[in-house]
Specification:
Bound molecules: uridine-diphosphate-N-acetylglucosamine
Helix content: 25-40%
CATH class of the largest domain: Alpha Beta
Number of helices: 14
Strand content: 25-35%
CATH architecture of the largest domain: Alpha-beta prism
Strand order of the largest sheet: 23-25-1-26
Length: about 425
């Protein structure tokens, strides 16, 4: 029940180092299970979700050590094949151990996921694909129980380019006998990052980042070292904060090539965006203009940007229309923005945002990782001090969030103060 108090009015300025990508690091940590031995992952963000994944791996018997510059996972001996409810409930991305466990041990018991409160998030595509590779999967007492006596390669066409399903199937296929082909695969940069780590472990994998991924099964994998790509969602969050506050930010480490359509939208609203040697600079000289956008699988604008863009557009000059195509029910946090005076009407998967001159501070709640970051952006543009409850949702996904905000000139205070991150 931690709260963040944000004083509105500051124009963010300065430079901020973008951390490693949460959504990549989590899957790479899970992929370490595939090889007996010690893998080293660098640039893993020190955030609650990655600590939770560390706990999942430790529960399976792997050694996890957080070191300067990375996390080492020693998967020499696994002593369990179960991801318990207590951990999966905290983070549904724990489902990412399903594929690697099956590949490595022929067995997995993973509690049925709960997780972010953003609409229904079924995992049928993960399960259908694994069954095509020869796994037997049943639901028993709240667990998915999967077994396979040696997975075999299969052609799999996904009904939808699900990120999690693509990743689980890639990790299951790397040691399956034969050549697997995943069609209509997700193309997010995190998929290519996972493929790069798997290739470093000795996997035969081609086409990651395109809609067709080919995986030639190999006998065994070796542990490897890898550096996680930069977090495009974090980079976009700071870019949107720069726009909302009419600020001027340098985002060190950001990858503009992973943010093309998103940055185009900011440009439509009047942001000046330049590449730098090591990232990009976003400057908003005057009040931003409205911009319509739709969320789509990559290379479309990520659904994770939807709350962040809505917060930003709440004070834009004009009316914007947002369409959410990835997760149903991802507008539940909009009531919190309305409490701050935002003029937003939602209907089905559309939202109409009429920009107001200024928001007004109010007690609000962080409902999930991105909605929490959106509240902070809204608070920066509000009159007065906004109190954001449940701020630990933001800790799940953003490294050093308050320290970075403070470093860019925002006035923020946390209650109770943050002391306990490992
Ligand atoms: C990942 C990201 C999340 C991001 C999302 C979409 C992680 C830890 N999380 O989530 O931040 O918002 O990608 O970019 O990487 N679906 C099915 N059946 C399935 C799987 C998914 O119907 O078997 C549906 C989901 O309900 C959802 C859509 O497909 O509507 C997208 O889900 P998916 O791409 O799988 O997202 P995640 O991997 O869960």
């Amino acid at each position: 029940m931690d709260r963040l108090f944000v004083t509105g009015g500051a124009r963010l300025a300065g430079s901020v180092r973008i951390s490693g990508a949460k959504n990549s690091a989590l899957k790479l940590m899970a992929a370490s299970l595939l090889a007996p031995g010690r893998s080293m992952l660098r640039n893993v963000p020190r955030i609650q979700d990655c600590f939770t994944m560390g706990e999942v791996l430790e529960h399976l018997g792997a050694g996890v050590s957080w070191e300067d510059g990375g996390v080492a996972v020693d998967a020499t001996h696994l002593s369990s094949v179960e991801a318990p409810y207590e951990l999966v409930r905290r983070m549904r991305a724990s489902i990412a151990v399903l594929g690697p466990l099956l590949a490595r041990t022929g067995e997995a018991r993973v509690a049925m996921p709960g997780g972010d409160n953003i609409g229904s998030r079924p995992i049928d595509l993960h399960l259908d694909g694994l069954r095509r590779m020869g796994a037997r999967i049943d639901a028993e007492h709240g667990f998915l129980v999967a077994t396979a006596e040696g997975l075999t390669a299969a052609p799999i066409t996904l009904d939808y380019p699900s990120v999690g399903a693509t990743e689980n199937l890639m990790m299951a296929a790397v040691t399956a006998e034969g050549v697997s082909v995943i069609d209509n695969a997700a193309r997010e940069p995190e998929i290519a990052d996972l493929a790069a780590f798997l290739a470093a472990m000795g996997a035969g994998i081609h086409g990651a980042g395109s809609a067709t991924i080919e995986i030639e099964g190999v006998g065994t994998l070796e542990p490897a070292e890898h550096t996680v790509i930069c977090d495009r969602i974090e980079a976009g969050t700071w870019a949107a904060a720069a726009v909302a506050t009419r600020g001027d930010l340098v985002l060190d480490g950001a990858r503009p090539d992973h943010l093309e359509l998103f940055l185009e939208k900011l440009g439509e609203g009047g942001a000046e965006i330049r590449r730098t040697d090591d990232g990009l600079r976003v400057r908003q000289p005057e009040r931003a203009g409205a911009a319509d956008f739709v969320t789509l699988p990559y290379p479309g604008i990520a659904t994770d940007f939807q709350p962040i863009l809505l917060a930003m557009l709440s004070t834009a000059n004009g009316t914007s229309i947002a369409t959410e195509n990835v997760f149903e029910g991802r507008f539940t946090y909009v009531d919190e923005l309305r409490r701050m005076g935002a003029d937003i009407r939602t209907e089905g998967h559309h939202a109409v945002i009429r920009g107001v001159e200024r928001l007004s501070a109010a007690p609000v709640r962080a409902m999930d990782i991105r909605a929490g970051a959106a509240m902070a952006i809204a608070a920066l543009t509000a009159d007065g001090v906004t109190e954001i409850a449940d701020i630990e949702h933001v800790d799940r996904g953003y490294e050093d969030f308050e320290a970075k905000l403070t470093g860019l000139g925002a006035e923020v205070r946390r209650d109770p103060e943050l002391v306990h991150l490992p």
